[in-house]
Amino acid sequence: MATFSKATFNAAKYASSRPTYPRQLYDFVFQFHGRAKGARWDTAVDVGCGTGQATVELTPFQRIVGVEPSLRMVEQARESVKTRLAGINLSSQIEFVQSSAEDLSCLKDGSVDLMIAAQACHWFKWDKFWPEAARVLRKDGTFAAWCYSEFRLSRFPSATAIINDYAQGSDPANSLGTYWERPGRTILDEHLVAVPDPREVLPDKFSEFERVFFTGSHYPDLPNARPVILRKRMSWEELLGYFRTWSPLHTFHEKHPEDLQREDGDIAVRFWRKLKEEVARAEGKEVPKDEDPVDIEWPLALILARRA
Q1: Residue 171 CB partners (closer than 8 Å, separation 6+)
Q2: Helical packing angle, 160-168 and 267-283, nearest 10°
Q3: Cβ burial 102-112 (10 Å sphere, 16+ → b, else e)
Q4: Is the pTM of this model over 0.85?
Q5: Which residues of the chain have pLDDT under 50?
């Protein structure tokens, strides 16, 4: 993704402001992997690993490789992994490689037991990726990818319309909807349903494929939706920090630098204030203070595939 390679992109702020995937998600993936009779726990790979947030959670495997096209992300990942888990240095167990998802030449044929992609697979070129995944995955190896869509204020469904208007609106002067990179963002917003079934692409290479939706009641049209599992309590000030990690905001400011000089705040601040005002209206209370807590949740889609 182009934004992550720009000189203005701050990988450290990105890493600190994003939601953390719950243990329940990793356990779900590990349990799927472990159900295969031939499952092994030698090598795990995180494709599109970013700053390594999910990479460090693959410690049930003896060797872990993070693959990421952005050099800035790779550098941040190498630094953060040294102190990521309670001060434990995982550098000897984890390595990071700069490469795209479609070029896994750094990995040998049939050498990978588990391959994941966290908030990354909506950018993959699947006609090239599925053959590469099939090449490097061992028999009974697992591929698992997940993405979360637009955030929601857990206790205030009335704020959803405001969120959608800001994030997906068509007005280029007052929303970010036209500044997302497509088709990747569309694939994410539609919960990965556009990702092709690998059994149809490579019929003899994959034996299982599943779609799992941890989306709660937010998207009633999705089949067999499970409760939301990706949640985070943060302060309103931290929520604004999260907004500043959005890639379309960087693009918006490149197109409209004058927006940063507005006395009433830039587009992100104005949106943030609208949310606070809506929460105050819904609760019948004063506008929340910057340090007050707010509960956020993200609908999440997961796809799982098993190598034949």
Answers
A1: 177
A2: 170
A3: bebeebeeebb
A4: yes
A5: 2-6, 8-9, 86
